[in-house]
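Input structure tokens:
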């Protein structure tokens, strides 16, 4: 039994980058929803960005489930 260490390293690297990126994106979403809303349209921009971050995270999770189930 031979182990392809280069392929294993690539999988590890891509998984690490994807995980850190997704967690970072989710963190930005949390920060965007935690911003104070003072009723102006400028205060709505972080909230819209936060929802966009959450949508991208949900799409990434759904794509991962699709890859596993297919």
């Amino acid at each position: 039994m031979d182990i392809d260490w280069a392929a294993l390293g690539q999988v590890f690297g891509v998984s690490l980058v994807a995980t850190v990126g997704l967690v970072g994106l989710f963190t930005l979403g949390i920060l965007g929803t935690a911003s104070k809303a003072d009723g102006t349209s400028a205060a709505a921009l972080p909230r819209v960005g936060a929802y966009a971050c959450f949508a991208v995270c949900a799409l990434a999770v759904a794509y991962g489930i699709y890859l596993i189930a297919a």
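The CA atoms of residues 6 and 14 lie 12 Å apart. Residues 33-70 form one domain.
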